[in-house]
Design a protein that fits this description.
single chain; 234 residues; MetI-like fold; 9 helices; MetI-like_sf; transmembrane transporter activity; transmembrane helix; transmembrane
Length: 234
């Protein structure tokens, strides 16, 4: 291992790390949006909707992420749906993780006292308004720790995009190692790169667990929530 080699490899791996971050952020946004949709549908009053969504979630969670990526990148083009490797990786990982995020959001919503939903509706708030004004803000506090932990998993699984030729950090490391045969140096740098990105997220997860992990939604509304209720009554 030579210092000159490290200085040559780091810029290439850094560009790959930026791609890993892009994939993770794209996966985070897509999985959050879809996860919220799945969670709300799974809590629907219609048994048919609940059955279909629950079955879809169970099927997707039973598949390896790499299979989802292969299916989207290699199979969908056969039926006329074309997309680039980056888009396929974000959609595949985002769709896969949306099923996990859905359960996190659903658990957070169900942790809120049902009486608050009934109280909000009794003062004329609609179901949708009650959900995003009263229920979701409280559910977020319960869901934050597992949600942050899922973000760490997304970052690590972004390396799967290398299997469909996305030039993220693992892929760049593979290419460098194949051309220089310096496996120890290259993959040590790759490992350090992932640690540099994931350790701050893990620290954030521990902080959130200490602050909110043992938190359960209050059985009675807080003073702020009671004040907000009085304002709605006016």
């Amino acid at each position: 291992m030579h210092w000159r080699d490290i200085t040559d490899f780091v810029p290439i791996l850094f560009s790959g790390a930026l791609m890993s971050i892009i994939i993770t952020l794209g996966c985070l946004v897509l999985s959050t949006v879809l996860g919220l949709v799945w969670a709300l549908l799974k809590m629907s009053r219609h048994p048919g909707v609940v059955t279909v969504v629950s079955a879809m979630i169970n099927v997707v969670r039973g598949l390896p992420m790499i299979v989802l990526l292969f299916y989207i990148y290699f199979v969908l083009p056969d039926i006329g749906i074309q997309m680039g490797a980056l888009e396929a990786s974000i959609i595949g990982l985002g769709f896969g993780y949306s099923t996990y995020v859905a359960e996190i959001i659903r658990s957070g919503i169900e942790a809120v006292d049902p009486g608050q939903f009934e109280a909000a509706q009794s003062i004329g708030m609609g179901r949708v308004k009650t959900m995003y004004r009263v229920i979701l803000p409280q559910a977020v506090r319960v869901a934050l720790p597992p949600y942050a932990n899922t973000l760490v998993m997304m970052l690590k699984d972004s390396s799967l995009a290398s299997t469909i030729t996305v030039a993220e950090m693992t892929r760049e490391g593979q290419l460098i190692a194949a051309s220089t045969f310096q496996n120890v140096t290259v993959y040590t740098l790759v490992a350090l790169g992932y640690l540099a990105m994931s350790l701050p997220l893990m620290s954030l997860t521990r902080h959130l667990e200490k602050r909110f992990g043992k938190h359960k939604a209050d059985k009675r509304p807080s003073k702020r929530e009671m004040k907000a209720t009085r304002l709605y009554e006016r």
